[in-house]
C-alpha cells in the first residue's frame, strides 16, 4: 500500500471496532488491525479477497453491500452469523455504509450476547448428555456390584478355618471396595433422586451458613469477605440445595488456597448483586440474582478449565470430581446458570438465578 494509502486509513487503524473497506465488486481493499484480529487473517490475506470467498455465506453480506450502493450513503444494520470453513461461525452486528465512488465501509462488532447464548446452550446440552450417561452407567454398575459383594460374603463363609484370617483379608478387600463403589454410584444418582423442596430463600442466609462452615474448617489464614446487596429480595427455591451449591464451590476454593492459607493471605469473597434483563436458558428475566464466589488462589489448571463441570473431573488429588457437577445440576433445577472465569490469582464462579 502506498504512503498516501497509509495516511488515508490511519484513522481507521485506531478504531477498536473491526472495519473492512470494500470496492464495488465487494472485494476487500483494506482491513484495520481490529478486523485482522476478529477474522484471524492478515491484511495481506484479506486484500483483494471477495467477501464470498472469506465466508461460505458471504453472499448475505454482499447483498447488504449491493443494497447500500443502490441507496447511496444509507446505513444498513443486521445481525449475521458469518460461516467460515473449519471454524466456529462468527456472530456479528454488521453496519454497511456507502462512501461514494462504489466504495463501502463495513463495520463488524462481535455479538457477545449471541456468543453467551450459544455457550449456555452447549453447556445445557452437555449437562443433559452427562445426566443420561451417569444414569445409564450407574445402573449398569449397581447390579454387578451387588453380585460381587454377595459372592465375596458367601466365599468368606466357605473359607477353611485354618486359613480364615489369612484369606479373609482378601474377601474384605472385595467387600470394602464394592461398598466404596456403591457409595460413589449413589452420589452420582443422588441429584436426580432428591426431591426439590421449595420455600422462601434469602441468599444471604445461604452465604452466611456457608461462611460459618468454611471458617470452622479453616479458622486461621483465611478471610471470607462479604460484599452483599441488601436489596435483593427473597425468592422461591430449595435452600438446602443452594447451600450445597455455594458450599461445594467455596470448599473447593478453600482447598485450592491451602498454600495462601499457610501464608495467612487467603481470601474468598461472597458477592451478591442484582442483574437486569438477563437471558437464562433462552428465557428472558427482568431481574436475576448475580452471585459471585471469588478466591485469590492459583486458578484452575488450563487443561481442565473447559471440563470442570463434567462428572469425575477434579483439579486436586483425591477429589471425587462430583462437587461442581452437583452444583451445576442444582443451579439448573432453579432455572439458573453457573459460569466460571479463572486465571492465576483470581477464580470467579458466577451463579445467575431468576428473581421474582
From TrEMBL:
Keywords: ATP-binding, Kinase, Nucleotide-binding, Phosphoprotein, Transferase, Two-component regulatory system
Known EC number: 2.7.13.3
KW Transferase (keyword) present: yes
EC category: transferase
Residue ranges annotated for the Histidine kinase domain, each copy included: 136-356
Reaction it catalyzes: ATP + protein L-histidine = ADP + protein N-phospho-L-histidine
One Pfam family linked to the record: HATPase_c
Keyword Protein transport among record annotations: no
PANTHER family recorded: SENSOR HISTIDINE KINASE, SENSORY HISTIDINE KINASE_PHOSPHATASE NTRB
Protein name according to UniProt: histidine kinase
Amino acid at each position: 500500500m502506498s504512503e498516501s494509502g497509509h495516511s488515508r486509513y490511519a484513522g481507521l487503524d485506531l478504531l477498536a471496532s473491526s472495519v473492512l473497506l470494500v470496492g464495488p465488486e465487494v472485494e476487500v481493499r483494506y482491513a484495520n488491525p481490529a478486523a485482522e484480529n476478529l477474522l484471524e487473517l492478515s491484511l495481506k490475506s484479506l486484500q483483494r479477497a471477495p467477501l464470498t470467498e472469506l465466508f461460505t455465506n458471504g453472499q448475505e453480506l454482499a447483498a447488504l453491500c449491493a443494497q447500500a450502493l443502490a441507496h447511496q450513503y444509507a446505513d444498513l444494520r443486521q445481525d449475521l452469523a458469518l460461516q467460515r470453513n473449519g471454524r466456529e461461525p462468527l456472530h456479528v452486528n454488521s453496519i454497511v455504509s456507502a462512501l461514494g465512488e462504489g466504495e463501502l465501509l463495513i463495520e463488524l462488532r462481535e455479538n457477545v450476547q449471541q456468543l453467551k447464548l450459544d455457550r449456555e446452550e452447549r453447556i445445557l446440552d452437555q449437562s443433559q448428555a452427562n445426566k443420561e450417561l451417569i444414569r445409564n452407567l450407574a445402573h449398569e454398575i449397581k447390579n454387578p456390584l451387588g453380585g460381587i459383594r454377595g459372592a465375596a460374603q458367601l466365599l468368606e463363609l466357605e473359607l477353611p478355618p485354618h486359613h480364615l484370617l489369612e484369606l479373609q483379608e482378601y474377601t474384605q478387600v472385595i467387600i470394602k471396595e464394592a461398598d466404596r463403589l456403591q457409595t460413589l454410584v449413589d452420589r452420582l444418582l443422588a441429584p436426580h433422586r432428591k426431591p426439590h423442596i421449595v420455600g422462601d430463600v434469602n441468599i444471604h442466609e445461604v452465604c452466611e451458613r456457608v461462611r460459618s462452615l468454611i471458617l470452622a474448617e479453616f479458622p486461621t489464614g483465611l478471610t471470607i469477605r462479604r460484599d452483599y446487596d441488601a436489596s435483593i429480595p427473597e425468592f422461591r427455591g430449595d435452600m438446602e440445595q443452594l447451600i450445597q451449591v455455594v458450599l461445594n464451590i467455596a470448599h473447593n476454593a478453600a482447598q485450592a488456597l491451602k498454600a495462601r492459607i499457610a501464608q495467612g493471605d487467603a481470601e474468598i469473597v461472597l458477592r451478591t448483586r442484582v442483574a437486569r434483563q438477563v437471558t437464562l436458558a433462552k428465557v428472558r428475566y427482568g431481574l436475576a440474582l448475580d452471585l459471585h464466589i471469588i478466591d485469590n488462589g492459583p486458578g484452575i489448571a488450563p487443561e481442565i478449565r473447559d471440563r470442570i463441570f463434567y462428572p469425575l473431573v477434579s483439579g486436586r488429588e483425591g477429589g471425587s470430581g462430583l462437587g461442581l457437577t452437583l452444583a451445576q445440576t442444582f443451579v439448573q433445577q432453579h432455572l439458573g446458570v453457573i459460569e466460571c472465569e479463572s486465571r492465576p490469582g483470581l477464580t470467579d464462579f458466577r451463579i445467575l438465578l431468576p428473581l421474582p
